Amino acid sequence: MSFEPRSIPVDPDAKGALASKGLDYRLIDPSDTGALDGWIDADHRGFHHARPREVTREYERRVMGERRLHGVFDPGVPDPNVPVATVSSWPTGLSVPGGRSVDGWAVSSVTVSPTHRRRGIARAMMEAELRSAKQAGAAVAMLTVTEATIYGRYGYAPAARAATIEIDRRRARWIGPSSPGRVHFVEPAALRDAAAAISRRAVARTPGEIDRWSGILDRMLGLVDPDSDASRALRAIRYDDEHGQPQGFAAFRVTREPNEPGWAEFDVLAAATDDAERALWRVLVEQDFVSGVRGRLRSVDEPIEWLLEDPRAVRVTEASDHLWVRIVDAAAALGARRYGAAGELALDIEDPLGYAAGRYTLLASADGRAVVHVPRADGSTDGAGAGSSGTTAAPKRERSRARASAEGSGSRSAARAAEPRSLKLDVRDLASIYLGGVRPSVLARAGRITASSNGALELADRMFASTRAPHLSIWF
Length: 476
Ligand SMILES: CC(C)(COP(=O)(O)OP(=O)(O)OC[C@H]1O[C@@H](n2cnc3c(N)ncnc32)[C@H](O)[C@@H]1OP(=O)(O)O)[C@@H](O)C(=O)NCCC(=O)NCCS
Description:
Elements: H1 12-19, E1 24-27, H2 33-46, H3 54-64, E2 68-73, E3 85-96, E4 100-112, H4 121-136, E5 140-144, E6 157-168, E7 182-186, H5 188-204, H6 214-220, H7 229-232, E8 235-240, E9 246-255, E10 262-271, H8 274-285, E11 290-298, E12 314-327, H9 330-336, E13 343-350, E14 358-364, E15 370-373, H10 396-407, H11 412-416, E16 421-426, H12 427-434, H13 440-445, E17 450-451, H14 454-464
This protein binds coenzyme A.
């Protein structure tokens, strides 16, 4: 998706709604440093961060200058150049099952000053972001959340989880295979380019990860403020394969009291290969003079416990929702991923905001590719009606074959069946099953999804399964 941050005009509905409250909703011009700094100050205040130091401000200017920034201004406050509400957004890829990526719209920096809360400012901004996402051609909108009760009302739902994992050093005896390459300590600044290349490959193989913006690696590697105590405490390691090619990296710090063993803590471990992942874990868990290792934002199906003699050395101390997704264009979203099984499945999607409402018939073949039959403007679903990219109307022959394949080999009666198996679900439930993070049958047990038959649920479970659990390893 090519994008010029200010190419989409300010949303007129949000502008009107906020103007009726005496507030001015407008786009920030990043080349206006005064306006950008006011926005950055409001964002920091909204998240209860300290006032930015100059070095942080420079970093923020660089990152935010590439995004679409909105502020809500109140002419009645003592400093009217600092907005009372902020939001940022940008187009970015989201990795989906099958090693592919879907066009996404990332939303971040949602803050409303405590002096202006609960007047509908966040609602106006969030609804505007969905309209902008649609205009930009995104299939999904996405965000990470401070509280899990804010965004469901706009159709977002948890789609990928993340875990904090602790490993007790005394019990961590490695039984996994040795990787053929080597792990080296490297200076964080020297890792910068290799880290970007490795991250791209690690993101591509993990559903739920989003494309990295350039500044994030500077933050992860402590390069934004390299002289700060936090940055100087960071140690970086890199795995090079047997041919000397960098394939993974991690950055950790050991927190400890003087003369006491501490904890090795890391927020980043990115691996383009399984060898790299194992080798980096091994160096981290086998360190001496530490009580243990704590990894944050790790996958909920990390292989580490299968690499140690004592699986109880590993404790998941926290596992919760992390990436939230909102399906904006269901045909494009469904057509982008690969499916775990062949079959034909109709999805009757309810969407109070209208974006994804209707019947979408998903036709997956044995190689995991799918075509999506999309609703027509007149409400019917049959015949042609190609949706957005990656979707086409399914020819009848293909539909029969996929249906028969879903039923088991040679089932002619299935191929003749008039109606495909179907699920009725809310757009939020579609977001939750989209990356394979929860089985449709679990949401049916929770009373959220209704299936036309038991066979429909079994088929949906198999189709929406992802080989790798969806995982997002950053905040945005
Ligand atoms: C969360 C926040 C943005 C809400 O802003 P706001 O302008 O007060 O929200 P609105 O008045 O537009 O409320 C819209 C709806 O969200 C609900 N809501 C707002 N904040 C909520 C919260 N923290 N938890 C649950 N619901 C919340 C409101 O009750 C309202 O519900 P309704 O319209 O369905 O009746 C604001 O409180 C804030 O800046 N918090 C600190 C920073 C933060 O956590 N940002 C979120 C980043 S992910």
